[in-house]
Amino acid sequence: MKHTTCRKLAPDTMVRHVAITLAAAREVDRTVRIPSSFSSVESRIIRQVPSWVARAGIVKSSRAWWLWCEPRPSRARDGQCVLDLPDGRYMVETLDTRTFTWVSCEAAAGSPLVIGLPHTGRPVLACIRRVARATQVPRD
Asked: How far is Cα 85 from Cα 2, in angstroms, rounded to an integer?
């Protein structure tokens, strides 16, 4: 799996991208919720991105992290992203910003968190929701 460095997007740019994209998605799917507020997250949370990602950023709402990835011109395929998020289980849904439909959904666990990102040729927005904290395995 080839990973490259990418430019990090500023938090204000991220909030604008996420809010506009979710508003457009809500026109297609009335169940889409638009968070009332976002908080800045350290961009170093994004440890690795697929080779097709040129620019990326991440912000947090009260219930999710929002990862925005912009493609570089390429014929790349899907890839994996590694994020330094708290240990636990997560649901990751990815929105295609051209059709404003959810194109993938996966469960992931761990720290760091490894998630798949589909290459659509357009920016993608991933909603990463923590569904459970890490559990301790009882020892004998």
From this structure: 21
